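Intended use. Records such as the Protein kinase domain-containing protein entry shown here are meant for training and evaluating sequence-to-structure methods. They are not intended to support clinical decisions.
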Amino acid sequence: MSNLHDFLVKHAKFPFPQPDEDRSIDATDISLIEVGLLEREWKPNHAVRDNTLVQKLCSTLENILGDTFLAADAENQLLARFLPRIQRSARGREDLDWRDNPSERTSQKLLDKGVLEAIADCLWEYGAYDFLAAAENVADRGSSKVDYVVQVDGEDKALVEAKSPSVMKKVGESLPPRGVELTWARGQSLVRRILAKAALYLGLRRMEWLFLTCHNYWIVCRLVRDDDHPFLAYSPIISIEDSSVPFQALLGAILSIVKTVSVEPSEFSPDMELDTIVEEQDEGPLPEDDIDNGTAYSVSSEEEMSGLMVTSSSQNSPESFQVWMHLRPFSDNMLALPQCATNGKRRLWLTRFVGSGSTGNVWQCRFDDSVDLFIAKVVEVLRPADADNRKRLHNEFDVYLTLEKAYQSGQLRDHIAPRCYGAFEGDGVDVLILDLCDGVLNEWGELSDPEK
Ligand SMILES: Nc1ncnc2c1ncn2[C@@H]1O[C@H](COP(=O)(O)OP(=O)(O)OP(=O)(O)O)[C@@H](O)[C@H]1O
């Protein structure tokens, strides 16, 4: 018999596969549509370094585990999850997966078979808790996927986001020593983008803890909810090499939520001194050019006449808090918006997330001062692969244009597709506006083959 906490401090260690830190660095941008969904108390304005964040989690774990004892057979089972036994099969063959870690994909594999399996066993030994690391989780109404939502007895407790060793190294090196103001814009430097995304993942799911990791290195993020000054706290980067601290921190965060034990607070004061990060050179127009998050903006009157603004923010949130994106019509857009669009300020409210297709995200929407519902198909270009989605949306629009010509010339009399009311583009975003085919598309699967 041994004390579970002492056992973990001594044994919860994993191999340190050789990380390839020189690969190209690539991180998906933040979705401004999703930023619009954040509620005030979950939308931090600052990210602040907390040098003792990891120790706070380790102390919480120690308090929670207390004098829990581990029976000898459980101890033997758990030992197989950690160094040195995890590196070899029962018959002594070396597991080559632990040799090197070149990429994000490998990081995920190592997390799956290493830390996450061990957390599952520890939670079972400690309190017969069921643990699941649900992969590729999409938040309610959102579209970005966090790599893992860790669940205990079916409830979400913390997030884990896998990164490549090269991204972790770069972010670890450039973590601001004190803190920064968080900016909700696209095209930011890697460290700003990663911190904003961590806050976005947590805020959308209304959760406190997110662990960024490539298995070798870890950064802990904590979203501190507050009506006036919500903020994100981040730890310095820590290594798993010959250290059980990352494992203790993750288990501490999970158990703090399971057992509702508060972790010593992270501090932030609105007048504290912050760091400035020099942004990397960005090509093209500044992303802010098309975004309005309450600050003054100017659009030419011609743009105002033909353009559109779009948001996923709630109409109940204060105007200054709403996140609007300015859109202009595609150059070949000859389709007219519905009559109701011209009643108000040419603003489109995305009111309900319908689903994701192979092209983009589909939202139910309505125009200012109107109750009529429409569909907006939205493509945001957040990573290189999204350029293909944008192309698909353009092709889809070409089909609607061809159909419109056929209707107008009398070649086609019946509408054979939802009516399209135009295509618009902004900085990194394209939007198609369509009729809402309520019921019909949703019941597509129930139609017989001839009906389809
Ligand atoms: N005009 C519409 N009215 C109502 N729901 C729609 C409309 N267009 C799309 N949807 C819904 O939005 C979701 C995604 O649709 P979308 O057409 O983008 O993708 P898809 O059906 O997977 O096809 P594709 O491969 O063409 O992208 C589906 O659930 C679909 O029923």
